[in-house]
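MODEL INPUT / OUTPUT PAIR
PAIR INDEX: 1
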Amino acid sequence: MIVRSSDRLRAAEEVLSQLREELGAIGVTLPSLRVDPISLASDDPYPLIDLGRCNLDTAMRLTAVLHGVPR
C-alpha cells in the first residue's frame, strides 16, 4: 500500500497536535516539538515526530510525570 505524502503529513500533524495537547494538560511544553521534515521525505509509511530540545525544568517535569505512570 502506498501512502501519499499529503496523507502522511496529515496523520503526523494530527498526532503531533494530540501529543502537544496531552503534554500541555500535564504542564509540559516541548518548544521544539515538530514533524521531522527529513523523515517525511522518506519511503517510510509515517514520518517521525521530533521531540526536540527542552530546558532542565521541562525535562524534570516530564520525568516526574513518566515516573508516576504504571508500567
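PAIR INDEX: 2
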Amino acid sequence: MKKPLVGALLALFLMGAAATPAVAATSRPAAKAADFAGTVALSNCSGSVVRVPDSQPDDPALVLSNGHCLEAGFPAPGEVITDQPSSRTFSLLNAAGSSVATLKADKVAYATMTDTDISLYELSSTYAQIQSKYGISALELNADHPAQGTAISVVSGYWKKIYSCDVDGFVYRLKEGDWTWKDSLRYTSACDTIGGTSGSPVIDTSTGKVVAVNNTGNEDGERCTENNPCEVDESGNVTVHKGINYAEETYGIVPCVGTGNKIDLSRSGCTLPKP
C-alpha cells in the first residue's frame, strides 16, 4: 500500500500512490471516456460520491475511499468501523477537474482494511441536493464482479489525473504488512498510480460504473512488506510484481446498502466483514 499523502504533498506508504425522478438517485450515464465529475479530493487521498442501484434521490450521499485513508489512521487487522461520527470535508470536482463545492460528512458509515480496503462516509447532503446545486451526479457501483480484460480508468481527485489501462487479472490473496485482502484486482502496467491516488474510483469505461477502488502497488520488488504487496495463490505460493498496482473490488458493497442508503451488514448477500 502506498501511504496517503499528508497535507499537500508527502511520502508514499499505502497506495493509491476512498437522482432520477422519485425512483432512483441520479447516476452517471454510460461513458466511453472517464472524467472527474463526481470524484472528490480528500486531505490525503482521492475518492468519489457513489450510489448503489437502489439509492434514492433523497438518501444521504455516500463517499467511497480507502480504509487506510481514514482521518483516524489505519484500521487494525480485523477491525471494522461502523457509524462513527465524522466532520470530514471533501472537495467535489466537476468533469473538468475543477472544485465546485465542499461536501461534509456526518459519519463514517463503514470502514475496514480486513479482506478489503474501503471507507464509506455518509454526507450531510443528499444526492438530489448535490445534483440541484452543483449539477453533479453520483457514480454508480456495479453490482457484478469485474471481468479480466476490461478497459478501466483510475480517476484521482487528489491529483486531478486519470490513469487508463485494463484489468490484468485477480489475486486470490493480496498481502501487505499486517493486512490481507481477498480477490484483489490487478492492473496492467499502464496504471502506474502513485501516493495520493488511494481511494480513486476504478471505472469501467464501457459502462461508466465503478468496479473497484484503487489502493496499493509494489514499489521496490520486496515481498509482502509495506509498500510492497505480494500475491498469494490458493496453494500458498507467493508472487511479487514490482511496479504493478492493485485495487479492491466494490461489487460486494452493493448488497450491504439498505433502505435510506444505510449500511446493513445483516442483509442477504452481504459478505463485508462485520465488527
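PAIR 2 NOTE: The domain at 1-256 is CATH 2.40.10.120 (Thrombin, subunit H).
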